[in-house]
Each structure stands twice: as structure tokens, then as C-alpha cells.
From TrEMBL:
The keyword Heme does not apply. InterPro entries: CE4 (IPR052740), Glyco_hydro/deAcase_b/a-brl (IPR011330). This is Lipoprotein. GO terms for biological process: carbohydrate metabolic process. Residues 57-68 have a biased composition (Polar residues).
Length: 420
């Protein structure tokens, strides 16, 4: 049965998406060969500093705390990649952005933070946002205040310096048939993307804050995102490809090896076992919540621990199914929210702590995963995609991937260095 037919009641959550800071979507230690994980101790940028625009951002050189991807050697077992990602990432009074930065560092992980552009725009300047099919100044997740912008800026700055990725969750988070992102044209998506980038690149002018610039060129840093409510993927991908994006995480898929669609890596959300149910669940906190307490974000307190355990155990079942099986990357999506007493935040943290230190496991950002995928022989990736969910090669990995891969083309990550 097709993946999208097995979401059960989770398919209905888009219409109930809560308007909150985080927005919502429905739907061995160390670095080793074949890995694209963080390299601790790399120097921070500083030898280069070139302000951009009004000084809200600046080019400071290559991102620190990253390692170069390596091609799999013949017969080498693939690493198990796990991506923890956050929709509408921002720092508010819950301090969850700063908390999970700490969790990531303590567990040798990097993550992807999908920043919403309107979190860089103060309420009094809301009319600068001109959303497609809506009046200027409209946003289903609101805007921000000076303190919220300053706090989010600090978290984004430190996250990037630690090797994490800053992606985008766009701006106003419009869902449904009445002007929602699923109804937008390619040109409307281009406008939304341009505005999301502009608000990040002009927070000094818009908010009047005197703070250090973000240490990256967002036009080059931004290579992927996840659409609100997982809607509008087709036209978004067309726009994103033309704008130089490299991946999208707005779809729903099984736990199989990714492939490129419309020129982008399709790093979709995935379906994993849902303990106590016969159907599978999307790897996102919001979907677990809706299938537990409905649209009530604070349900029965007596169920909080059980619901969190249910999400944790479902994600872990999905992890071990891949880790002991086809080694397909596990894609997990979340929000900085305290739904049902914060039980989903506890569940995600438990998963990070259990899986990220295991041998051959690489907890990485989407950027790092895309870099690794680009470094591989396409024939090897094609063979990996022949493995079904949870299916390990019957003859063993050494035999399954024994063929000698072709050399990477010049300029592709993992290509041999030019001889002097």
C-alpha cells in the first residue's frame, strides 16, 4: 500500500494546525569514513569577514565543525544517518532552541533548524510581508517582538557555528484550500522564498537591533526547507530547483533510501511503527499528538507520560528497523512546543541520547546528508534503493556492495584530489 494511504487519521491534521511560534507540519562517536558528522574542535570563522547588505549577515568563511563526506568503499556498510529537524525554529520563553542545541552538542549531533522568516520581522513592521493570495501583514503564526528576535538571532548564530544547518519554513504558514501554500503557483513560491530570505538578511534595518551579524551568507546557506503542513510540494520544488535549492523535506515516504525528484534530493518525512496501532505514523511530534489527544494541545495529564513513551518507542522502532536492516536515513521532524506537557520534547531527547552514540550512527543535518548522497556513486545509491523497508542484504553488506564504484566527477564532494 502506498505510504500516503497508511497515515490514517494523521492525514487530517493539516486543517487543525495550531498558530504558534513553532508553526506546524502535518502530514560511534567521532567522524569516520563514509560519514558526514560534526568534527569537534574545528576553528571558528574569523580570518574572513565581509558584511552583506545592512550588516544583518556576513560572509565569515566556510562553516566550522563540519567534516568532508567520503564515498563508500567497495563492500563498506553504509552509516546509519538520522536527521533531527525543527519546523519554524525560534527561541521563546520555553528556551527549547537553546536546550536542544545543548543536547546536540552533548551527543555529537548536528541538526537542521527551519527558520521562519517572520520571526525576524517585528510586529510593527508586519506590512513589509506581502504573502501570496493574502493581504499585506497577514500571518497565521504571527510575527515577533524585539526580545524574541534578539533571542532567536543568538540561537541561529551559535547553531550555525556549531555545524548545524539553517533552513527555512518560509513565512506565514498558510494551510488549507483558502490561499494555503498548496494553492500557490511557482512564481508565488518564488516570492515567498525571496521574502523569507530578505527578512533574515535585513533584521538590523527592520528591528533596529545592534547585534553581531549572522555569520553566513544566507543566499548560499539556504539550500532546503519543509513546506507548511507538508502542502504545495510540487510547485515549491519547481521554484526551489530554479533557485538553487538542493533538497526538500515536505513529502511522506517509507523508510527507504532517498532519490532525487525534480532535481532535488527528496528527504521526506517517513512512516514508522505506531505502538498499539496497526497503522504507521509520520515521524513528527504534531502527528503523534493529533493521533493521541486530537486537536487539543493539552489533553489528559494522566496520559502525558504514555503518549511521550509511545512517540519515543515508535521512533526507536523505526530507527532499529533501519539500523539492523537497509540502513536508510531516518528523517524526524519536530516543533519547539510543550504540547501535552512537553512530553514530545522529552521523547525526542530520549531518542537523541539513545541513538546518536551508537557505532556507525551519524546524527546530521539535511545539508550533511545531501553532501554525503552527492558524494556517492549513483549506481551504489540505486542498489541501496532496491532494499525494502527494514530489509538487510541477504548475502551481507560486503557482498551486496562489493562492486568497485566509479570515480566521482571532478567538483563533486568525495572526488579524488587533483594531482599537483
Amino acid at each position: 500500500m502506498a505510504a500516503t494511504q497508511r497515515i490514517a487519521v494523521g492525514a487530517m491534521v493539516a486543517a487543525a494546525c495550531a498558530a504558534s511560534l513553532a508553526g506546524c507540519s502535518t502530514g560511534s562517536d567521532g567522524t569516520k569514513e563514509g560519514a558526514s558528522g560534526p568534527q569537534q574542535g574545528a576553528p571558528a570563522p574569523g580570518s574572513v569577514f565581509r558584511p552583506i547588505g545592512d550588516g544583518s549577515t556576513a560572509y565569515t568563511g566556510s562553516q566550522p565543525n563540519l567534516s568532508s563526506p567520503e564515498r563508500l568503499k567497495p563492500g563498506q556498510k553504509p552509516p546509519q544517518f538520522v536527521v533531527f529537524s525543527w519546523d519554524g525554529a525560534g527561541e521563546d520563553s520555553q528556551k527549547l532552541f537553546s536546550h536542544f542545541r545543548k543536547v546536540a552538542k552533548e551527543n555529537n549531533a548536528t541538526m537542521t533548524y527551519f527558520l521562519s522568516g517572520v520571526y525576524m520581522l517585528p510586529e510593527e513592521k508586519r506590512d513589509l510581508y506581502k504573502p501570496p493570495q493574502h493581504s499585506p501583514g497577514r500571518s497565521d503564526i504571527g510575527f515577533n517582538d524585539e526580545q524574541g528576535i534578539a533571542d532567536t538571532l543568538e540561537q541561529v548564530r551559535q547553531a550555525w557555528l556549531e555545524g548545524n544547518e539553517i533552513g527555512t519554513h518560509f513565512n506565514g504558514h498558510f494551510c488549507g484550500p483558502d490561499g494555503g501554500v498548496g494553492t500557490w503557483s511557482v512564481d508565488e513560491w518564488k516570492s515567498e522564498i525571496a521574502q523569507a530570505k530578505k527578512f533574515v538578511k535585513s533584521w538590523k534595518s527592520n528591528a533596529g537591533l545592534k547585534a553581531d551579524p549572522l555569520p553566513f551568507d544566507y543566499d548560499k546557506e539556504l539550500i532546503g526547507g519543509r513546506t507548511p503542513c507538508l502542502e504545495g510540494q510540487k510547485n515549491f520544488m519547481k521554484a526551489a530547483r530554479e533557485l538553487g535549492f538542493r533538497y526538500d523535506s515536505s513529502g511522506v515516504d517509507d523508510q527507504v533510501w532517498p532519490e532525487k525528484k525534480r532535481g532535488l534530493w527528496d528527504l521526506s518525512m517517513q512512516l514508522v511503527p505506531f505502538p498499539g496501532h496497526t497503522y504507521e505514523q509520520l515521524t513528527m511530534d504534531y502527528n503523534f499528538m493529533v493521533n493521541q489527544s486530537g486537536t487539543e494541545t493539552q489533553g489528559d495529564p494522566d496520559m502525558f507520560d504514555y503518549w511521550g513513551d509511545q512517540m519515543r518507542d515508535g521512533l526507536l522502532k523505526g530507527f532499529y528497523r533501519a539500523y539492523d536492516g537497509n540502513r536508510a536515513p531516518l528523517i524526524i521532524g519536530n516543533h519547539f512546543e510543550s504540547w501535552n506537557g512537553g512530553t514530545y520534547m522529552r521523547a525526542v531527547e530520549d531518542v537523541v541520547k539513545e541513538v546518536c552514540g551508537k557505532p556507525d550512527v551519524r546524527c546530521v543535518s539535511f545539508r550533511q546528508l545531501a553532501d554525503w548522497l552527492d558524494a556517492q556513486d549513483p549506481r551504489v545509491l540505486a542498489k541501496l534503493r532496491t532494499l525494502n523497508v527494514g530489509e538487510a542484504p541477504r548475502q551481507g553488506w560486503a557482498s551486496f556492495l562489493s562492486g568497485r564504484p566509479a570515480p566521482a566527477p571532478r567538483g563533486v564532494p568525495g572526488a579524488p584530489a587533483d594531482k599537483a
